[in-house]
Amino acid sequence: MNKPIVNLAETHPLTWRLRDDQQPVWLEEYQSKNGYFGARKALSSLAQDNIIKIVKDSGLKGRGGAGFPTGLKWSLMPQDPAINIRYLLCNADEMEPGTYKDRLLMEQLPHLLVEGMLIASFALRTYRGYIFLRGEYIAAAVHLRRAIAEATDAGLLGKNILGSGFDLELLIHTGAGRYICGEETALINSLEGRRANPRSKPPFPTSAGAWGKPTCINNVETLCNLPAILEHGVDWYQGLSSSNSIDSGTKLMGFSGRVKNPGVWELPFGITARELLEDYAGGMHNGLTLKAWQPGGAGTDFLPPDYLDLPMDFEHILKAGSRLGTALAIAVDNKINMVSLTRNLEEFFARESCGWCTPCRNGLPWIVQLLRALENGHGQPGDIETIDQLCRFLGPGKVFCAHATGAVEPLQSALKYFRAEFEAGIRTDLFNNVRAIAGVQPNLLQLRW
């Protein structure tokens, strides 16, 4: 019996156009594969408010990590046509360790992002869009610039696009290599030529963003979902996900670490982490077992292997005590020491702090200092308790932005599940024994003596 033919265009809207030789899909080939169909439909037969409603009804959520409903964010933009200056920013500053999904789309399907930005700009009435691109993504910058030039020459960008009266200019801005630029207001400051510090909110960017004008910021993968939603409709998009999930559509997911087949795949929301690890990533290398895993990049909480049967979506991962994040999971094998791993992560986050608020600026280096001592077996009684308190002091509402809060997520989960490995780094020499016998209790927040 013949197997039914699967129409990849209807099951893998983000990746079905990818070439086997991994070369970029340029304009002629892209258009031969229904490229710009969604944009033509939007500009020729849909009102801006209707497009926003379609995106809202589709259930599309932000793919940058937070999972905020895209249509809801769009609806916060002022719709008054008299406001003639507003901006669309594409957050392509992909610097989360272990994350590489947006790079795939930009390098191999640059026109998909251009089309997504055209649709979003038309719906939001923005006359200019910026792609804020990680500076190290040199190939992506080259490919996007060519795609923008091709689209401009074909009348798909520029003045009076497709005779609709709508104008759009797309520009690429390459960042200087700071992780904090992934935070939307720090991104805006950097785009304006300022130091990349987060801004106070409110006002939110949708009311006062780039150069004080209404600004919408969306992730690369988020924008790349738009052409297929407009082409196939809301019901189709909602039906893509597994019955295990309330989230709509597909998601670029992956596994890295010491797995047999690390990579990224477009999969429906609701597939389990075990399926992702075993069926797609090939499982762990021979002789290794899974010790822990991070569902969505270095800034998400570790989960033990017991949670592998969770559906990969925003709700289930959050209930388990972590975040879906970028959905590019990291596997930790049984040969890795959790103290060394968390020290390495915290060094990165401490280095990438913008230094704007004291808890983050001073707290993260202090954590690194304590972890380094534990890693080398020089930890002192009270060090782990100090780390616990620092994690709480860097929690939500106690720092200026989410950088420090995300930074301590892997640390606090490592302490929860692997505390014995941290306790093994405490010194038990005569000096500490004497202090304990004398009844001297350490001040948990004192500077190291």
TrEMBL record:
Function: NDH-1 shuttles electrons from NADH, via FMN and iron-sulfur (Fe-S) centers, to quinones in the respiratory chain.
Source organism of the structure: Moranella endobia (strain PCIT)
Enzyme Commission designation: 7.1.1.-
Leader peptide range in chain numbering: none
Name of the protein in question: NADH-quinone oxidoreductase subunit F
Catalytic activity field: a quinone + NADH + 5 H(+)(in) = a quinol + NAD(+) + 4 H(+)(out)
Cofactors, names only: FMN; [4Fe-4S] cluster
GO molecular function, one term: metal ion binding
NADH-ubiquinone oxidoreductase 51kDa subunit iron-sulphur binding domain boundaries: 339-384
Top class in the EC scheme: translocase
